[in-house]
Amino acid sequence: AQRVTQPEKLLSVFKGAPVELKCNYSYSGSPELFWYVQYSRQRLQLLLRHISRESIKGFTADLNKGETSFHLKKPFAQEEDSAMYYCALRPTGTASKLTFGTGTRLQVTL
Amino acid sequence: NAGVMQNPRHLVRRRGQEARLRCSPMKGHSHVYWYRQLPEEGLKFMVYLQKENIIDESGMPKERFSAEFPKEGPSILRIQQVVRGDSAAYFCASSPPGTAYNEQFFGPGTRLTVL
Fold first, then answer.
1. Between β-strands B10-13 and B110-114, what pairing exists: parallel, antiparallel or unpaired?
2. Chain B residue whose CA is closest to A47
3. Beta bridge partners of B111
C-alpha cells in the first residue's frame, strides 16, 4: 500500500523567512513524487516533480529514499506563496493513480 | 486549450436522489481520473478510465457509484441514492496517452452537497 504523510495542517511564516513543508511517504517499490499547489480560487496544479530536479518559483524538493521524505523548501517566502500544498506519490513510470497527503496550508504574513 | 472542464461546479441533491458529475478532459487526453476530497482530508483516488475502459476502480465504493468514459462525450461519475456522507468535492484529472511520466491536469472540481 502507498501512503503519504504531511504532518502539518498549517504552516505560518513571515515574508522572507525560509519555508519547509514536510512530506514523508511509504511505498515498497520505486516511487515518483510530486508537489501540487492550489492557490485561492484556482485549480490544483503541478508545482514540481522529483524526476525533473528543477526549481519552480524558487521551490525545490529532494527525494531522500533513506528517510522516505520529499520535503518542499524555499529559502525566502513570498506573500504569493500562500496556498494549499499537497504532496503526492505514484509508482514510477506508470499512468496510475496519485496518492495524496492531506495537505499543508502555507500562510505567509508580513 | 481550455483545460479540464467539470460541470456542474456546484450540485445540491436531497438524500435518495441521483448525482451526475461530468468531466471533459483536455484535448488529446485519453486518460481520466476521478478523485474525491472530503472536508479536512486530502484527495482520494476513486477510478481511472481510458476511452470505453475502466482501468482501475479500486477506490470506488462498491455500491451506488459508477463511472464511464464513452467513445464520444465527457466522462460521467454517477452516484445513485445519495447520502449525506457523499457530500464532498469531486475532482477530475486527465493525462495524455502513454504511460511514463505524464502529468495529470486537474479540473476545478464539482462540490456536491447532499441535504
1. parallel
2. B103
3. B10, B89
C-alpha cell at B58: 479500486
- Residues B15-65 have pLDDT tens digits of 999 999 999 999 989 899 999 999 878 899 999 999 889 999 999 999 999
Residue of B93, B101, B106 lying closest to A51 (CB–CB): B101
Residue B13: strand pairing partners: B114
| Angle (CA) A49 A106 A56, round 5° | 30
- Write out pLDDT tens, residues A36-82: 999 998 999 999 988 777 888 999 998 998 999 999 999 999 999 99
Cell of A22: 514536510
Statement: residue B1 has pLDDT above 70: no
Q: B101 and A43: CB-CB below 8 Å? A: no
Q: Could you identify the residue written with the cell 521524505?
A: A69
Report the SS3 class of residue B84: helix
Q: Which residue has the cell 485519453?
A: B30
